[in-house]
Amino acid sequence: MTHIQSWPSPAPVTRPVAELAALPDVDLAAQAAKGDERAFECIMHRHNQLLFRTARSILKSDPEAEEALQEVYLRAWRALATFRADAKLSTWLVRIVINEALGRLRRRGAQVIPLDSAMDSTEPDIQAALQDDPDHRPERAAMRAEMRRLIEARIDLLPEMFRSVFMLRAVEEMSVEDVALALDIPQATVRTRFFRARSQLREGLSRDVDLAVNDAFSFDGVRCDRIVAGVLARLASERLSSSARPE
């Protein structure tokens, strides 16, 4: 009798992490939909900041946004087979984040009311919220103090000839004529220096704001890695639970 030697099935070919990281979203999603957790890990690292900031903008809490994001990734992992490439993966994930965050608001009793409905509502609590002046809140006072320090620092950076004119004209609200007399310069020079001082100040503050916006709700490496590790740990736990169930 001829014995046919059986060979073990070859192990599935896996892509190196660097190669996976270079793949476009649609290919990563296809790989992850087949159960490739490393591809899903790449997806998480790629979109973590966008999704965290989306959740944070709704929940206004860093810890809750992190928790929501982990739930979102688990839902996305289970639903990846339904993802269609006619939409961006990032858009698909953002929709899941928004639904999860709004659901959390509803579950904790927060009211999510369309603006049109709120304007027509006669509920005292809703009307009180609409009439509340945020400028009088303590956090807004702290923000104004921080903005004042930023403006003062930018004024200090102006050239001396511009700084004196700006201080007298804008801060002290002196007239062009009075500033000209005080500094012993022509009124036309006051106007020119004041215009240039405002332009330089505006440009400097604009750069500061742009940098601050880019850093808003920063998503550092530690937080990013913590969320990814948490999701992978829960996926591993689900695998163990599934394998432990009797057939």
- Listing every helix as H and every strand as E from the N terminus to the C terminus, the arrangement reads HHHHHHHHHHHH
The CATH H-level homologous superfamily of the largest domain: RNA polymerase sigma factor, region 2, helix turn helix motif
How large is the radius of gyration?
Answer: 29 Å
What is the percentage of strand-forming residues? under 5%
Number of helical segments with 4 or more residues:
12
The geometry reads as elongated
Q: State the share of residues found in helices, binned by percent.
A: over 70%
End-to-end separation in angstroms reads: 37 Å
Largest sheet geometry: none
Mean pLDDT over the residues: 82
In total, how many beta strands?
Answer: 0
**Shape-level CATH architecture of the largest domain:** Orthogonal Bundle
CATH domain class name of the largest domain: Mainly Alpha
Model regions low in confidence, pLDDT < 50 over at least 5 residues: 1-13
